[in-house]
Structure to design on (607 residues):
């Protein structure tokens, strides 16, 4: 930028724009940009490290033993053990959770978006309540399950209790995602439907919901993938035991993958920890699958208006 | 058919009632939480004085002599939250500024799902990673003789900080993206550099959303359970101010006592609920604060 002190009469540079468009190198600017970028790099480095470490630790246990065999609490049998009961337990619990929380969450979202009058205090309270519930720590839901569902309602430590608690835990996520999907449907579609004489529910069920399905599906998958990884509430609901049978009903005892992982990695012997690491890889694989599914649904099927 | 009067449609009313019931489930959940907490907590304080609970410096519900001072749990919760937030705020805010102000549309589209994956990693996995990977690195590079314990608050808090980065980043980024383009254009027209626009125009304009993301991160750190249970340790017989030692947070205590089959009518059982009430109180206050702040930035620009 150090142009020589020009003689007054000197001819102007042929292209005056060049001086304006030329990039000045500003050290501060570059450092700032690098600092910001390094924040992202640090976060992603941890992501890679976490996944790589689990694969490295669990590598020799990543075979059919993992899903064909049952867990054991005995050191002498650990090499032949697997986590089959936790895999089937996870499928039972998450399947039931989906059956409970998806209908309730979607219906609640329809009410809030299409029916509720925002001027009324009870609707505002409802909204505040959902936002607050989304931030309640999951261990508190474990306390709710222990005190109310397992003990006071007498459902005990069963698949049903676990599913109910996980359903309540992820309900706000389903509601918030569904509301966004419904809100994205343009008002003109509703007006056109009403103009043709459709009732409110006909408009919602035949026009609004079909359009909102991809958004609802994405949100639901993400909510369920949160539920799959959740351990804290379930360790209070009887899942921390070595279960050597698959659940056979809603009233069955159970364990799930994250809780099984917890019991394995806190054992002192390396054999347990390796099996735990292999189970982590399995769990991460499952979550990655669900996340990619959510992204594909979002990118392929979502309409932009 | 008359246009004057709407036909009665019982079906429509039934559906509306069904929707209201579904929406009421979330209210019932909150009521259920409060009910679940209150009764055992009241019974707990019938046996243990409130003053002893809030000022006692030993928490030993399973060891004789039994003592119910919550300060050791509270101290390690505060220390671990502080460290976690001190890591998550700079990393999360830096990532958010980069994504909102610097990254091109394509880069952002590629990076955001990666942050979502980081947010989706189960906390048991973070705990496992903290205990076996990060802690051994920490112990091998630790200068001086005061080595970190096998389980310690520091390593649990660092990993908790990484876990919270996506929370801070995504909410802050939302807040910055909501700042109208005209403010940036105005600043550029006054010959501001990119950094000046980001730091002096966009950040102040998005401040309530950014602070909300910090508060939400704080609330997540206080409530986080599995990482501190696995990697932070479970001792609570004295107030431990050194993060290199093992110490139980409130959540770690609840998870630890709650996983056994505690007899229902015991003081142990009720102590879970007493600590739970305290935890719920803290996170409730923080959530309420962050909801207020988010509402403010929505109101200003939307």
């Amino acid at each position: 930028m150090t142009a020589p002190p020009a003689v007054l009469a000197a001819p102007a540079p042929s292209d005056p724009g060049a001086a304006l468009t030329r990039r000045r190198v500003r050290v501060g600017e570059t450092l700032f940009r690098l600092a910001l970028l390094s924040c992202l790099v640090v976060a992603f480095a941890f992501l890679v490290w976490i996944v790589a470490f689990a694969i490295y630790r669990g590598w020799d246990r990543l075979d059919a033993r993992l899903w064909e065999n049952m867990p054991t609490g005995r050191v002498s049998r650990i090499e032949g053990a697997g986590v089959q009961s936790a895999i089937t337990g996870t499928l039972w619990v998450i399947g039931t959770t989906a059956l409970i929380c998806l209908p309730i969450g979607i219906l609640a979202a329809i009410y809030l978006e299409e029916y509720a009058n925002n001027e009324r205090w009870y609707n505002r309270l409802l909204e505040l309540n959902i936002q607050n519930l989304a931030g309640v720590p999951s261990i508190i839901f474990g306390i709710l399950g222990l005190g109310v569902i397992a003990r006071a309602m007498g459902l005990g430590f069963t698949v049903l209790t676990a599913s109910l608690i996980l359903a309540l835990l992820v309900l706000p996520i389903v509601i918030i995602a569904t509301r966004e999907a419904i809100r994205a449907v343009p008002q003109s579609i509703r007006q056109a439907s009403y103009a043709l004489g459709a009732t409110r529910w006909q408009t919602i069920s035949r026009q609004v919901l079909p359009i909102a399905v991809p958004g609802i599906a994405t949100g639901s998958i993400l909510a369920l993938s949160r539920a799959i990884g959740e351990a804290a509430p379930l360790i209070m609901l009887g899942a921390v035991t070595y279960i050597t049978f698959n659940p056979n009903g809603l009233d069955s005892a159970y364990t799930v993958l994250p809780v099984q992982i917890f019991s394995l990695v806190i054992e002192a012997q390396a054999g347990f920890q390796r099996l735990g690491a292999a189970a982590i890889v399995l769990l991460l694989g499952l979550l990655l699958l669900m996340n990619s599914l959510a992204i594909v649904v979002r990118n392929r099927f979502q309409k932009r208006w | 058919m008359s246009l004057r009067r709407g036909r009665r449609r019982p079906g429509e009313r039934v559906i509306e009632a069904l929707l209201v019931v579904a929406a009421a489930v979330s209210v019932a959940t909150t009521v259920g939480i409060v009910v679940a907490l209150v009764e055992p907590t009241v019974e707990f304080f019938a046996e243990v004085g409130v003053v002893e609970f809030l000022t006692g410096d030993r928490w030993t519900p399973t060891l004789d002599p039994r003592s119910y001072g919550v300060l050791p749990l509270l101290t390690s919760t505060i220390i671990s939250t502080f460290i976690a937030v001190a890591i998550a705020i700079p990393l999360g805010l830096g990532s958010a500024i980069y994504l909102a102000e610097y990254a091109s549309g394509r880069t952002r589209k590629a990076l955001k799902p990666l942050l979502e994956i980081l947010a989706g990693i189960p906390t048991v996995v973070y705990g496992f990673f903290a205990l076996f990977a990060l802690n051994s690195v920490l112990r091998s590079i630790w200068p001086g003789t005061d080595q970190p314990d096998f389980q310690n608050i520091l390593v649990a808090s660092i990993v908790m900080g990484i876990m919270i980065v996506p929370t801070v980043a995504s909410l802050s980024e939302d807040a910055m993206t909501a700042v109208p383009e005209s403010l940036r254009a105005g600043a550029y027209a006054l010959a501001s550099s990119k950094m000046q626009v980001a730091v002096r125009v966009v950040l102040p304009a998005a401040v309530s959303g950014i602070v909300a993301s910090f508060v939400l991160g704080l609330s997540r750190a206080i409530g986080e359970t599995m990482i501190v249970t696995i990697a932070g340790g479970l001792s609570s017989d004295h107030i431990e101010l050194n993060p290199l030692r093992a110490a139980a947070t409130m959540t770690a205590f609840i998870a630890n006592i709650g996983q056994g089959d505690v007899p229902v009518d015991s003081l142990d059982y009720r102590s879970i609920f007493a600590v739970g009430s305290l935890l719920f109180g803290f996170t409730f206050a923080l959530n309420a604060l962050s909801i207020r702040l988010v509402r403010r930035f929505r109101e200003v620009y939307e």
Summary: The beta strands of chain B are 59-60, 67-68.
